[in-house]
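Narrative of activities, Objective 1.

The group set out to show that a structural description can be obtained from nothing but a protein's sequence at a throughput compatible with the screening campaign. Below is one input-output pair from the validation batch, recorded exactly as produced.
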Amino acid sequence: MKWWLLPLILLLLYLLSLGYLYLFQRKLLFHPTHEKKAKEGFYLQTPKGRIRIEVRNPGKAKALIYLPGNSEHWWESPDDLARLLPEHTIYFPHYPGYGASEGSPSQEALFQTAIRLYDRIAPEHGSIDLTGRSLGSGVALYLASRRPVRRLVLITPYESIAALGAERYPIFPVRLIVKDPFESLSYAPDINAPTLILLAQNDSVIPHAHSRKLIESFRRIRPEVHTFPETDHTNIIDSPEYPKILRNFLE
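Output recorded for this entry:
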């Protein structure tokens, strides 16, 4: 092989990898589940299709919108929340393209789902609390920066999906090509609501450095922060202290 062919081959492989990352980034970011079963709730009509909203404990004065993590669309989650928070009506959306919802996931689609849901239910409740887990924490911050909420809970949050991607793929210009940056740092300074942030001690999906940058970006309030020992990104909700801390903050 001629000496000058190797750099050309490496450049070609790099460009092909970059093209793949750009074209298929949403498949890398979003992990839709496709269960069609639905229990109690309703559908939101949107220009891109129907969005399924699971509802538990209907008719309460207080509401909780729970914006789930990437793979958290299993059916036990709304039921667990309803048992944990019996004084709240629980609203648990299936993101576009997830579960029983139509459409395709994107930052804009998730943000608009949250806004439409809030505007739909606000006249029915005296107050609205908001919880976002992992991917949903960025959606929750966006919503809380644009609509009044009584209390905000962020579970394993990040400062930016773009920053996480740049760390995971350091040889690529992720920040230049990312379609769904979820820049939570842009929304945190506008938050007025009392905020609780829950972290897992051994979180390898969203390392603490990313969560800490987010915590430091709050300006109007100082979040209450709890780190659960011997937990990771997935099993944080199994900590014995988790339900007590969440319930005490919201109730």
